[in-house]
Amino acid sequence: MKKLIGLLLFSFITLITYAQTDNDIVVEVAGEKISKKEFVEMYQRNNPNPEKKIIKKDLDEYLDLFINFKLKLAEAKKLGLDTLTEYKNEVNSYRKQLVEPYLNDKTVTESLVQEAYDRSKEIVRASHILILIPANATPKDTLEAYNKALSIRNRILKGENFGELAATYSDDPSAKDQTRPESSNVVKGNRGDLGYFSAFNMIYPFETACYNLKINELSMPVRSQRGYHIIKLTDRKPTPFSTCNIAHIWVNFDNHASKEEAKQLIENAYSDLQNNISFDSVVSKYSDDRYSSKKQGVLASQRVTSMPVEYTEMIMQTPINSYTKPFETRYGWHIIKPLLLNPVESIEAQRPTIEQRISKDVRSYRTIEEFIKKSKVEYNFKEDLSKLDAVIKIVTDSVFVKNWQVPESFEGKENIFTIGDIAYTQKDLAKEIEKNQLNQTPEYIPTYVNNIYRKISDEKVLHFADMKLETKHPDLKVTIDEFRDGILIFSITDKFVWNKSITDSVGLSNYFEKNRDNYMWKERADATVFNFYKEIDIKKAKKVIQKGIKKKKTNEEIIEMLAKTFKVKEKTVEYFDFKWGKYERGENKIVDMTNWTLGISEPIQIEKRNHIVIVHQQLTPTNKTLTEAKGIVTSDYQEYLETQWIKYLRTNYTFKVNQDVLNSITN
């Protein structure tokens, strides 16, 4: 959405803190000063062609959006949106996911092999909505994609249907219904459903996001090289088999005049099987798969994760060498016969393949233990294990029944370890033991204390290194700040623009009335199209329709007259139907072929199907009602609210541009 341009990318203002002088400041917004160096770095960082000479027009446009962004952010903080628990939890949750790769070193390890193997033993099913980011995306493109993903996620959380939003907004073509070029059949889109998959079937961030989700849980936007994904996990179960051999009968929608015809054929095939006709013979007679039909319907070995989800589910329900009932997929109707199911191989059998795939994958990080080891060296970790003795002496067996307390007399001032500028004392360890004691089987106290210390010290080292990640990795800081500020801007924009445009029915109505001449129907044809799907006497059909018109029959009554004339007693939709509407030019090619001539048309043949059109009247341009124009009016009203809001912010907050410094950027 254009209204969202400038949302997240400007959060880069916190990227690096520079020593600033007033002579170096490009802009000051709501009390925050931005230096020339900082501003140029932000601009270039979000420019797909950073080597390209900076053009003043582009810079001015960026500055204008930047000021709007900073004003919105200032307003969000003024309203305390950054102090809300929900906001903090969302930021922390996202950061936790984001820093995970930084807390591991790049190497092939047993833990990664085990992770991949464990995932291979479980299949997950997920749906996604992809918001594409073009290869040559501008900063605006990236920002708009991210904001669009956040907006869609918010709509899902508010109760809108995931599949419908995927069909409408996802840039994954498979989500939408598609008409096959070789036929007029419509292939139903998957509505974002990716079916079942396992380790290595998806890019690692996407895979990890899915395996970390609970069933029916919704992810935050997940970035991939294609764009941003909103993911919903819909199922997970043990992998039923690794590969399988099956035979199938496939009646392809594209090979038949209608879906009803395809369904009838598969029902005939199933009837033959029920009458003990061999599977091979039925394959030869009915299957549209020209490759497998020559091999008794047998397909090459299939992986569980490479088949349509309907295949996987039917195979799991069907005994070996038995056949399924007919079932439908987006590709047609099927009957399958499982021949052989191969179980998941052992980890040792798969190890060479797993290690090779890991080496080519972003998951090739070292384990967390190795990361901790390096962090201890990097941050000058020092420990004195002899200082544990004082803690060991005060811990008693009561700790194993959750009844131990640190003695009041215990001072515990000496350091057990230090890392950076942080010291961890004997008293700190004792308090940690008291806090986390459990009912458990008694242990040897020195071993117990040492184990707890080792766990806690590793956690503290990891936490210290975690706190340094943004300083050590500026790109990580940029991403986290982008998300943090983006959530704030999204929340406040929803409050003042998006949600208001939906709930403020009076404001929307008033806006429509003031601008109603912007929402006009063009010249339209009021027409009915009769469609014929079988070979019939089309001239005779036209006479029936003419007779119906003369007798002022309704379209439904004309269909009844056609059925009576051609002796169609049931399933008339397999023979003929009609569609009535009011069409602007270009909306219905069949109607357009009549040149909108009033009355009944001559038969029109398209792709071997006949059509007869009745043009009832030509409608002159007229105003749309609010109901008819609701979508575009709401969008325009949002633009209006955004504009008014920006005017308010620019009036109530201060901002100042140092034009000389700005001009020097392009000189």
UniProtKB/TrEMBL annotation:
PROSITE patterns: PPIC_PPIASE_2. Its EC number is 5.2.1.8. Coiled coil: none annotated. Residues 121-235, 241-337 form the PpiC domain. It comes from bioreactor metagenome. Transmembrane segments: none annotated. GO terms for molecular function: peptidyl-prolyl cis-trans isomerase activity. Pfam families: Rotamase, Rotamase_3. This is Chaperone SurA. Keywords: Isomerase. InterPro entries: PPIase_dom_sf (IPR046357), PPIase_PpiC (IPR000297), PrsA_foldase (IPR050245), Trigger_fact/SurA_dom_sf (IPR027304).
